[in-house]
Amino acid sequence: MINGFKEFVMRGNVIDLAVAVVIGAAFTAVVTAIVEGLFTPLIGAIFNADSLKTALLVGLPGGGNLAFGLVLSAIINFLLIAAVVYFVFVLPINRMKEAQERRRAALAPAGAATAAPLTELDLLAEIRDLLATEAPKAP
């Protein structure tokens, strides 16, 4: 039972889902606070503006503005979230998977040929072939 649970948790799609939830829920507030508290004032000072919302404004004929500073803020926010998720989740999980593969390889008997695991594409092709052989022939 424990091994089954461990395999379930170590599947890629479960990890990807967990990372997506973390990105959306936990780190958004932290990264937004970092961007608004540290980067926005620095960039605003460089461009002599109160915040990124008022920095790098380009007026349009007929009214309105292009807010390049606001876009820059969103890009910084995204890059910070991506960096945190990569270094906190993706990198450690990849290292754990590599260590697990090394342990499995060390436990495998020497000289034993191991068959490559089936991929989803292999399984789908096998199902297609089975369905084709069992399908009734059209008159």
TrEMBL record:
Pfam families in the record: MscL
Cell membrane as UniProt keyword: yes
Ranges that cross the membrane: 14-47, 67-93
InterPro entries: Mechanosensitive_channel_CS (IPR019823), MS_channel (IPR001185), MSC/AndL (IPR037673), MscL_channel (IPR036019)
Subcellular locations according to the entry: Cell membrane
Topology within the bilayer: Multi-pass membrane protein
One cellular component (GO) term of this entry: plasma membrane
Molecular function terms from GO: mechanosensitive monoatomic ion channel activity
Alphabetical keyword list: Cell membrane, Ion channel, Ion transport, Membrane, Transmembrane, Transmembrane helix, Transport
Role according to the record: Channel that opens in response to stretch forces in the membrane lipid bilayer. May participate in the regulation of osmotic pressure changes within the cell.
Quaternary structure annotation from Swiss-Prot or TrEMBL: Homopentamer.
Family: Belongs to the MscL family.
Name recorded for this polypeptide: Large-conductance mechanosensitive channel
Organism whose genome encodes this protein: Cryobacterium mannosilyticum
